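Hi L., both proteins are below.
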Amino acid sequence: MTPEQYIENIQTLNAWAKAYYVDDNPIASDEEYDRLYHEVLRFEEQNPGLLSPLSPTQRVGGVIRDEFTKASHIRRMWSMEDVFDTEEMSGWLGRIEKNVGEKVRYFCEPKFDGASLNLLYEDGVLVRAITRGDGVIGEDVTTNVRTIRSIPLAIDYRETIEIRGEVVIRKDDFDAINEERIGSGEPPFANPRNAAAGSLRQLDSSITAKRRLAFYPWGLGENTLAQTALSQKMEYIYSLGFIRPPYSKEIESLDEIEEFYAFLISQKSEIPMMMDGMVVKVDDVALQESLGYTVKVPKWMCAYKFPAIEKVTKLNGVTLQVGRTGVVTPVAEIEPVNIEGAMVARATLHNFDEIERKGLMINDSIIIIRSGDVIPKITKVLTERRDGSERAIHRPTECPTCGSELLDEGTLIKCQNLDCPDRVINAIIHFASKKCMNIDGLGSKIVEQLVKEGRIGNILGLYALRYEDLETLEGFKEKKINNLIEAIDATRGTTLAKLITAIGIEHIGEVAAKAIALEFGERFMDAGEEELVSIEGIGGEMAASYLEFMRVNRESVEKLYGIIEPVIEVKAVVEENPFKGKTVVITGTMSVSRSIIKSMLEERGAKVSGSVSKKTDYVVYGEEAGSKLDKAEELGVATLTEEQMRGMMA
């Protein structure tokens, strides 16, 4: 095989794969594909210097990572507003058409239940794949995504483009994966969405390659496509080699939306992927931008969720789960009931206020729904069926895991004990995070490994780690061990504000921690309630949480304080300047990170807020500023570009 024939054979294999995985119309037999695949593989083994990144042999995976790195989307990945019935759908359409002043055309398609993904192509090549994350920053899962055969490694489009969609597992593949997991003694996945998300985030990419994931595009981020309608843009995306959804439709009225919605519900059992609703989007791209965004969602897009399936069953008991942040959540243990092929034995109760509001008791007959094919919850108590065997459900006062006294704030009940086994991993992850102690190399996976292997049992355990404790652990080489120990040691002598932030007190973030550190200094553990609430920005709930935390964890905090020996900052005297005592909001993309802008303003005595109100003095905005800038203009709040802000500082 010559190098030229090698490239031609790769193109042939990729065309055959597209026909099989994307078009669902095979044009070659499995035998033909396998024979040519192995010829290509042999050529690559003999000529490693000529290996093409577009070769199908590069989709098998095999790269093993310590953890995923973070990566930014060029344009934000938004969530969607949910609507649940005809009345809400009508109201949503009414708001759109009231703003526009005329009839609007909509683009509708199924809402698949999977893991959202953003693909970045540059010069026609896939360069990065990022999970949604918080919409601005997600996890870089490029190595795993290269194993998904329905995602082209190269496209016939040379401009920078972000293609967004859903990674899903078909129902029959989901069943096969669970059978395999049960056979090997592993717990089955709860639903196809969890299976898709879990497969996408495997540290070993060869596992992802075995999972038969599929990618369905549903939108775009950064792009310079000339088409004026979203439906036209998506038609072009499908032509580049992506899977087309089984159904989509352009629609102009509520009646047409309801008709297509009913049709999709009727096709739920026929469509091989799990659907939990229908997405409705304004089709005109220019109109989308003019409608804009709220703080959380685009105003031009919504998810019309499918109706939940209801069943009657019985509440057998309530168990308590302690989450990784210490929040205690009640879980309903119900008489198992079959909902669309899934046996449901547990349901969410949210919190004890919800239990009291519903008047729920043990042995009650209840109506349970499985909303969006996934989350079981109790919607109604059938009090008329009570027979006297029912028992009251009491609010817990002690942690079910460690026995510590719980902090009860009404809606929120929380274990404050840093050493509680159910919250220790998350406490250490928070302590090591960038905004806290910034311990480089101590990511979530490493923390879980250290705790599970018994190398550390709490935050204090970090400072007792020695080289010999780590050298026998899988993946720990000399350089990695030394770097981690040095990074932990580098936290000594940090500021008191950082220490208070890092120990993870409910409701006490960076701003409150800094205020407490400046106010109390080394006697921060002895602060009283009246002293705390006298600090601007600290209310009764925050003070109660702080005091309870210090009561439960005082011994641990004292030891940490002695080990770290933090620097006690003193209140700086701020000279008069235009920002002293002012409330400022930052929005948009700046020439430097917003955390730097925030620090610059705080050094000049400004209070930096996250939301715009009539009390805001300035909104400083950069490129792609959104709803905060709009609200500032509506309220008449003064707005400044970054350049204007720097001019005032000078």
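That was the first. Here is the second:
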Amino acid sequence: MKSKVSLNASENKEKNAMKVVTAGEMREIDRKTIEETGIPGFVLMERAGLAVVAMIKERFGRRRVIVLSGRGNNGGDGMVVARTLHNEGWDVKVFLSGRYEALQGDALQQYSIARKCGVSIDPLEKFLMQHSSILNKHALIVDALLGTGLDKNIGGKLSEVIGIANKSEAPVISIDIPTGISSDTGQIMGNAVRADYTLTFGLPKRGHLLYPGAEYTGQLSVENIGFPEHMLRTEKIAVDLIGKKEAAALVPERPAFSHKGTYGHVLVIAGSKGKTGAALMAAKACLRTGAGLVTLGVPESLAEVFQSRVTEEMTLLLPDKGDGTLSRKASKQVLDFVHEKADVLAIGPGIGVSDETEQLVASLIQNAGVPMVIDADGINSLKGGKPVFSRARSPVILTPHPGEMARLLSGRKDISVKTVEEDRVGTAQAFARKTGTYLVLKGVPALTAAPDGKVFINSTGNPGMASGGAGDVLTGMIGGLLGQKISPIHACVLGVYLHGLAGDIAVLEKGPHSLIATDIIEHIPSAFLSLKNNG
């Protein structure tokens, strides 16, 4: 299940994009709010708890509630929930992790108030011993155990409690983040609560949006409990979540006084024997995304295959090795064409991998002088971290899936896909900074990283798009947007969003099992119209 994000209606509708924070960044916002604004931490805690109460009452009505409470500020939020519902006549039981003597500060004060108001508070061990009877009487669980500060794996009794909560039929609301999910990476720290709903404060955390954390988060809501707006919008926070409004603002204009040359000429170098479809899909997606002209550069021995299948596209026949794969000798012809006619170069879909393609790709990076998108076998031809990017004469966009990303990183030592997936944001961000490239890390969710350290998390796409050729379509779409003279980072962000949106529209018609890459191309027009009409 993909985490769904909703903003509270009180949020400022004029801001450009929602920032996404680490636990440390949110702690700093919390600290500055208390110290610089003068809003006490106790007041923020009170507002957080009341926001959770409002969600419970809106979604569940009058029910019996269990609050699983920790000893920190997350547990303090839970105490506010318990006390407020108890005072309104709800049947509430709190089970506290650890001894109350360990409580400090605002959390201790909230515990004391709850006690004085008559809230039933027992040690967590009682829940472990009597959970069957307790769960039979109570229909809602509030997870207020650990929050965003988790820095080590969960085990022992706390893991047992999480297991019981996950196996129960009671819906679970997590406060801030499901217990056991890393706020920064979305990884499971030993064991984790599987929430139906999560209410977080100020800004979403990375762990809400990165898998597997997104799956455990359930439906995510974001509530501003008093943090100053300028703190939530600061450019010091490097990660943004891209939604429909932000994507719509990036769609390039189509002025009345224009012609095909206005929207760019894209040269797509793609295809080899057995992989002609990759080339054709990339070229067609490029046109559907708005490029004025598209030329498909292909191995000359496959001329008849391509000439019989292209319509709007033009072809450039390139030297090959006689086996349907490109020769390094193609470099001169490609560069001549680029320097004379093309505004953008896209390379990689279906070209195969050999010593000759490695030399070809390296030569084009260093000499093309126009923005380029490199995907698939183009990326695999760069494996081992070859230091060619520093010699690029123009912006370079790379669009790897996690396996290709691992190969890109495998220089002095092997990097596994697991390592990439364990920290998608950090991996993409570090690579883009180090190489000066724009990186689109495909997967769930897709990420775009810029050389300046900015990262954009995409919010569209679905499991039906996990199909051969979908990446070739994305290459063409980004290339088509580059041809329309928008910046490389905007071409990436908008291309990724439109790609996922076209897939989301297509899946409504085709279903997730039957969706194929050409369905995405067919629905690119609908994706554009959706942004225009509802952006």
